[in-house]
């Protein structure tokens, strides 16, 4: 028998029997369950489902659970199990019981299976539901298929499980404002969350780019606010506003009846849907419909993309603004029956308030020191109203600014500091920092991924997150009620793309929310993830395989004059095949066994294989061995210590960078030029020098204005061989890599001087206008 308890594996064996018969008792394989149960033991044998299997339940409260279980099994297996309300002795038994040593919470459960059947026991239906989710994961992955599977062996292994969640709030947020998703997808999200034992579905229903829910008292919210001009063929940050005469055609909204049905559906799956109605900022879509609630009354249109700065904001000086928002919340409250209403509260540009006479009058009458306190007044006033309706307010951590409303809960996204501050003040906190919970970030090397907003959040980093900061005392830690993943959709326009950005990272978040820290182990999680991906396939989820991508590590060895290459698997148990000629590896590619040396320029490509088939995206690394590789370089104007690349020889180590400026291959120059000299030691015939550069305007990185190349013989008398000017616009929002090349009539030279001119400051119209600009360089190729 193999027992798992808090991540420690105990193996008990019948030693006396082994000594008598001279052989060991085989240990059954552990089922791959995500999130990992608190305690699980595995025994020999199992129970096979058949049409004779009966689902019995002990209380009317469990009727829906029995229907759900039977329906799922029927849909995927074709087995039509009978349901009866009675104390069952065989088959699948659903039982309500009191709290016990094995069942300690309302969402906890006990599951016992053997050759006679399965018993799921809990104190409330929520626990029964989670026991059913575990039961599904004890079955073949085809249980998640939407149609009858060819799978015939529906056997449940013999196990004993005692389980309960670590946190009460296990959340996932979907932004349906930036891109509208059909109601059918929201049902899919609910089912997928249930699969991962998550229980809070946060719907971001409104922002500058769209209002998404019917409000009957204010029909223009959906008639006008739900639609924007279609700029979907352009980069999010380069979409110009709606022009006079243009029709707004992109968007959509949900009717109240649609959302009520969704809320009921989710409730049966123990999932609360939390609506977010943004205030006081991110309000352009609302103010396009009802401009009278802004400070200026200006006519606005719904923003088609990331137009910045955006200072459209509700007027805090008009009492009518609060009446308007209270009317909206009245209808929201009638749809969503749960404790919390999310009011946003983030990223409020208060410049309009500074200029607004009514807002300034409000400051004076309420004796407020500044606009931060005016925002706090705004939030407190809305909280008082929500409290009067039996609801509590939750908002992003900016609601701390100017003083937190008395009963408000905080969702900490700008790191964990806001959450720490709120917990110390005895406010409930949901941890959702960008560093570990923002699923709009890249999850693999950007050059191999769909366009994303930026950042880097691989699977392992999500899994490593600890929601309870070490700075908190045990008493303060009690105020951390959970964690949440957020999928903002500026760069996520489709259902398939949303799946890709979400899975399997949501599996990692589900485990850190459910499983005790002592039970977490990333290698073990990765092994279980192999079966989880089969479940995703059966469920039709377009999951990402970025976590399995091979890392190509390259180092130039100055002694051997070779580039040394190591291929590091991302998925335990995978094999790696690679090529050096730039072609994609296939079954016939070279099988990687150990690090190897490359003594000429090459493009290394590698793929992880599972069960003989390609599993990951192709990894690629270019190695350019050239005349300057490994020679001596000296700097007249040097790089920033914040971005040193791999050190002094970065620009002549043969290793090229990617579009990820933090990949360790780039040297960064902050507001300064590059001036360096390369000593080839022996004169050589050269005719071309290229400088590799990166532009990522969103990170304040721009291509060099120009590159000049000078050469000299042994005497050091330099002559200019040419200057090349950059031709890429600084307003281009795409991340790009290019070589700026100076070609010339062949000359014999020992020294090469390269001068790359920095833009100096970020250009007008850029968010960092006037601040020092960055220039990133990766290699000086001499040929």
Would you give an account of this structure?
- With 783 residues, this protein is of the alpha/beta class.
- It has 4 domains: 2-163, 2-Layer Sandwich (Chitobiase, domain 2); 169-537, Glycosidases (TIM Barrel), CATH 3.20.20; 549-622, Immunoglobulin-like (Sandwich); 632-782, Sandwich (Jelly Rolls).
- The protein has a 9-stranded mixed beta sheet, with helices on one face.
- Strand 4 (54-57), helix 2 and strand 5 (82-85) form a beta-alpha-beta unit.
- Helix 8 packs across helix 11.
- The model is unreliable at 1-25 (pLDDT under 50).
Task: Write a compact overview of the structure shown.
This protein has 783 residues and is α/β, with parallel strands linked by helices. The chain is built from 18 helices and 36 strands.
Structure summary, number of beta strands: 36
From the coordinates shown, what is the CATH architecture of the largest domain?
Alpha-Beta Barrel
CATH topology of the largest domain: TIM Barrel
The average pLDDT value, as a whole number, equals 93
Query: Roughly what fraction of the amino acids lie in strands?
Result: 25-35%
Which structural class is indicated by helix and strand composition? alpha/beta
- State the separation between the terminal residues, measured CA to CA: 65 Å
Q: What is the CATH C-level name of the largest domain?
A: Alpha Beta
Radius of gyration: 30 Å
Unreliable stretches (pLDDT < 50, length at least 5) are 1-25
Described by strand count, sense and barrel closure, the largest sheet is: 9 strands, mixed
What percent of the residues sit in helical stretches (DSSP H or I)? Answer: 10-25%
Morphology call: globular
């Amino acid at each position: 028998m193999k027992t798992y308890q808090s991540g420690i594996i105990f193996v008990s064996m019948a030693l006396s029997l082994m000594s008598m018969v001279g052989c060991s008792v085989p240990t059954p394989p552990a089922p791959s369950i995500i999130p990992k149960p608190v305690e699980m033991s595995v025994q020999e044998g199992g129970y096979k489902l058949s049409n004779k299997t009966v689902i019995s339940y002990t209380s009317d409260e469990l009727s829906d659970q029995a229907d759900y279980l039977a329906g799922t099994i029927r849909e995927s297996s074709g087995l039509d199990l009978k349901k009866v309300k009675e104390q069952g002795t065989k088959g699948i038994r659903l039982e309500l019981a009191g709290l016990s040593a094995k069942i300690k919470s309302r969402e906890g459960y006990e599951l016992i299976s053997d050759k006679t059947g399965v018993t799921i026991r809990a104190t409330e239906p929520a626990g029964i539901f989670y026991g059913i989710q575990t039961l599904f994961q004890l079955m073949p992955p085809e249980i998640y298929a939407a149609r009858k599977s060819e799978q015939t062996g529906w056997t449940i292994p013999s196990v004993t499980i005692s389980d309960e969640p670590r946190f009460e709030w296990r959340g996932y947020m979907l932004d349906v404002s930036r891109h509208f998703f059909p109601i059918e997808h929201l049902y899919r999200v609910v089912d997928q969350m249930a699969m991962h034992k998550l229980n809070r579905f946060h719907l971001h229903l409104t922002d500058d780019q769209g209002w998404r829910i019917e409000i009957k008292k204010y029909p223009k919210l959906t008639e006008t606010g739900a639609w924007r001009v279609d700029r979907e063929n352009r980069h999010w940050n380069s979409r110009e506003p709606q022009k006079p005469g243009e029709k707004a055609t992109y968007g959509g909204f949900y009717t109240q009846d649609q959302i009520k049905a969704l809320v009921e559906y989710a409730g049966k799956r123990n999932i609360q849907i939390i609506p977010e109605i943004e205030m006081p900022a991110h309000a352009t879509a609302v103010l396009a419909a009802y401009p009278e609630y802004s400070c200026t009354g200006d006519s606005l249109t719904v923003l088609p993309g990331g137009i910045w700065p955006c200072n459209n904001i509700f007027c805090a000086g008009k009492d009518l603004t609060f009446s308007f928002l209270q009317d909206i919340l009245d209808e929201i409250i009638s749809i969503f029956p749960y404790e919390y209403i999310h009011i946003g509260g983030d990223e409020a540009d208060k410049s309009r308030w500074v200029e607004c006479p009514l807002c300034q009058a409000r400051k004076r009458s309420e004796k407020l020191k500044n606009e931060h306190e005016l925002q706090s007044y705004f939030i407190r006033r809305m909280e008082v109203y929500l409290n009067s309706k039996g609801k509590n307010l939750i908002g992003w951590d900016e609601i701390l600014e100017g003083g937190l409303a008395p009963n408000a809960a905080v969702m900490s996204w700008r790191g964990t500091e806001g959450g720490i501050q709120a917990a110390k003040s005895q406010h409930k906190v949901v941890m959702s920092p960008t560093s570990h919970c923002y699923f709009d970030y890249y999850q693999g090397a950007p050059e191999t991924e769909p366009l994303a907003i930026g950042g880097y959040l691989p699977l392992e980093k999500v899994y490593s997150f600890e929601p309870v900061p070490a700075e908190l005392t045990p008493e303060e830690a009690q105020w951390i009620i959970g964690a949440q993943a957020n999928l903002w959709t500026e760069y996520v326009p489709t259902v398939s793309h949303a799946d890709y950005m979400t899975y399997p990272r949501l599996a990692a978040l589900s485990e850190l929310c459910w499983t005790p820290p002592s039970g977490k182990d990333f290698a073990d999680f990765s092994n279980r993830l192999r079966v989880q991906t089969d479940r995703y396939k059966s469920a039709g989820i377009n999951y990402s395989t970025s976590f399995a991508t091979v890392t190509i590590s390259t180092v130039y060895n100055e002694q051997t004059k070779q580039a040394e290459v190591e291929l590091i698997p991302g998925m335990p148990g995978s094999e790696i095949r690679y090529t050096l000629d730039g072609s994609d590896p296939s079954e016939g590619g070279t099988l990687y066994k150990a690090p190897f040396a490359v003594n000429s320029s090459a493009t290394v490509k590698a793929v992880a294989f599972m069960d003989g088939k390609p599993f990951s995206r192709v990894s690629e690394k270019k190695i350019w061995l050239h005349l300057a590789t490994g020679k001596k370089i000296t700097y007249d104007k040097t790089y920033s210590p914040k971005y040193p690349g791999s050190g002094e020889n970065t620009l002549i180590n043969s290793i090229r960078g990617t579009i990820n400026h933090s990949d360790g291959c780039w040297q960064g120059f902050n507001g300064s030029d590059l001036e360096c000299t390369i000593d080839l030691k022996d004169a050589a015939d050269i005719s071309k020098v290229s400088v590799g550069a990166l532009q990522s305007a969103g990170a304040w990185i721009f291509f060099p204005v120009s590159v000049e190349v000078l050469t000299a013989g042994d005497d050091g008398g330099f002559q200019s061989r040419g200057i090349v000017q950059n031709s890429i616009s600084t307003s281009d929002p795409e991340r790009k890599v290019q070589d700026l090349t100076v070609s010339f009539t062949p000359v014999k030279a020992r020294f090469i001087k390269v001068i790359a001119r920095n833009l100096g400051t970020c250009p007008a119209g850029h968010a960092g206008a006037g601040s020092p600009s960055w220039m990133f360089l990766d290699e000086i190729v001499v040929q």
